[in-house]
Specification:
The chain is built from 14 helices and 18 strands. Helix 5 crosses helix 6 (132-143), helix 6 packs across helix 7 and helix 10 packs across helix 11 (337-345). Strand 5 and strand 6 (213-216) form a beta hairpin. Strands 7-8-9-1-2-11 form a 6-stranded antiparallel β-sheet, sandwiched between helices. It is globular. The model is unreliable at 15-29, 31-38, 292-345 and 350-419 (pLDDT under 50). The protein has 508 residues and is of the alpha+beta class.
Length: 508
């Protein structure tokens, strides 16, 4: 029977087509075609911001919950730098290694119980090897226990504006209640740069020598794009491959986050592609810090006996009954087949809609134009206090509500809706904003309280409100006018912060 070559050709062509589709589909998981990537890869999220002026250059699912993995260590380092800066700890302090810290799964230094690790060794091991044992050593030394330290991490995140972030450990090992967003982690990257310039260079460490061993940096993008100065990689099975990257070059400054890479290489390739696309769009004009001032850890937001509202969003997932065993978590950390199976049991974080009076209110809310435009973001938002009897003063509750800030605009806006002044201020070159709420009356009350608390520095300032549509309703910005120069506005903002108010100076 003669063999029909045409059948073979048709079969071969069909295989090529299917193979091409498979390759293209894989590339779409993390490639330039990020518009479709989110539909293919549910773990994906991306965010790029101009760190000179706060304009969003790119975003895709930036406000949906994701597992941070070892990006968690960015906050561990933030609190470490804060303790160094205040003199509470020192670089050469010898920190004891507990049995619990020693038993953390890889990546790790392999520290033995009873040994010691200096603060600087721990810092270097976190930024290069992402050592899980060293992260716990730091947490126990600074916070007394990892659990106590994790609570401080979450509290600091909320104070920085990361209200969609919750931490449960110091290293990012799997925990179903530990979550963040691409926008929140970008905020943390900017905060590390702005608040700790004396320590930030640690993130550009290519390698360091640890007791006879050379330890290299996991962040390969440091060597792939000119101007990259950090920050951190992360991976667990449930999150995929994550990365926050900072670039400073020729007066331009960009911070970007990528979540959900299918491999370290594909994640890095995608990050480099984003930088190549959006660095040319960044501005060389530095308008000042995006996070106006480092929050003062010694400021008491409210008296301890006040029945305070809960902070931050409630995730729409919960761990299984009894949680996840340590064996399961170790399997996940190693990336074994068992780990993949366990990871499948962990819920995929999803965005939780914010509605009605539960919506986060802003210390700054910018209009959000169509997705293709660059818009201002990384701006503090505050959750309104739940109405309930309180033992403390009204001012203390208002300050508490303003302290828990969130850096993303509530809702989405299909088109650029201009803000409207509800109460028209006098001509003012600069304005200072302290909050935004869904009630104009509440906004004016907050302004009145703030002016009374601050005193002389705001004596000539004029309070006013300005409405802005968020897609899910209307928010009212609480602002002070009457500042002719940036310096005047910043001095007023500094005075507000001394009274525990969050604020931001804006050119009018």
């Amino acid at each position: 029977m003669p063999f029909d070559l045409s059948l073979l050709r048709r079969a071969a062509n069909g295989l090529v087509k299917h193979a091409l589709v498979a390759v293209l589909g894989t590339g779409m998981l993390l490639s330039g075609g990020v518009g479709k990537a989110s539909a293919v890869n549910p773990k994906y999220a991306g965010f790029v911001i101009d760190a000179n002026n706060g304009k969003v250059l790119y975003q895709d699912r930036a406000d949906e919950y994701r597992y941070p993995a070892s990006l968690t260590k960015m906050m561990t380092l933030y609190l470490t730098f804060e303790a160094l800066q205040s003199g509470k700890i020192h670089k050469n302090d010898a920190m004891p290694v507990s049995a619990y810290a020693s038993a953390r799964p890889p990546s790790k230094l392999g520290l033995r119980p009873g040994s010691t690790l200096t603060v600087e060794e721990a810092i270097l091991s976190l930024v290069t090897k992402s050592a899980n044992d060293a992260a716990v050593v730091l947490a126990e030394y600074i916070g007394g226990s990892e659990a106590a330290f994790a609570r401080r991490m979450t509290d600091k995140a909320h104070r920085l504006g990361m209200s969609r972030t919750e931490f449960r450990n110091a290293n990012g090992l799997p925990n179903a209640d530990q979550h963040t967003t691409a926008r929140d982690m970008t905020t943390l990257g900017i905060a590390l740069r702005e608040h700790f310039p004396e320590y930030y260079d640690y993130f550009s460490t290519r390698s360091f020598s640890f007791r006879g061993r050379r330890i290299g940096n996991h962040n390969r993008v440091l060597n792939r794009y000119d101007g990259v100065d950090g920050i951190k990689t992360g991976y667990i099975n449930a999150s995929g491959f994550n990365l926050v990257t900072s670039v400073h070059k020729d007066g331009k400054s960009v911070v970007a986050a990528v979540f959900g890479g299918t491999s370290g290489r594909s994640r890095d390739d995608h990050m480099v592609d984003l930088l190549k696309r959006y660095m040319p769009l960044a501005s060389r004009r530095d308008t000042g810090p995006l996070i106006a001032a480092q929050p003062n850890p010694n400021v008491l937001v409210a008296s301890a006996d006040v029945d305070l509202p809960k902070r931050g969003p409630v995730p729409d997932f919960r761990p299984n009954e009894g949680g996840i065993s340590i064996n399961d978590r170790i399997a996940m950390a190693y990336g074994s087949d068992d780990g993949d199976r366990i990871a499948a049991r962990m819920p995929t974080p999803t965005a939780r809609p914010l509605m009605g009076r539960d919506a986060i209110r802003a210390a700054l809310v910018e209009e959000r134009p169509a997705a293709s435009s660059a818009v201002a973001a990384i701006l503090p938002l505050a959750r309104p206090a739940v109405a309930r009897p309180a033992k403390g003063s009204a001012a203390s509750l208002i300050r508490e509500a303003s302290a828990n800030v969130d850096v993303q605009a509530t809702g989405s806006v299909a088109q650029n809706v201009p803000a409207m002044a509800v109460r028209q201020p006098k001509d003012s070159a600069w304005v200072v904003q302290i909050a935004a709420t869904d009630s104009a009356t509440q906004a004016m009350t907050m302004l009145k309280q703030a002016k009374s608390s601050v005193g002389q520095q705001l004596a000539e300032a004029e309070p006013f409100t300005e409405s802005v549509s968020t897609g899910g309703g209307t928010l009212y910005r609480a602002r002070f006018a009457g500042f002719d120069t940036k310096d005047q506005a910043w001095k007023a903002c500094a005075a507000l912060k001394r009274s525990s108010y969050n604020c931001y100076a804006v050119a009018n």
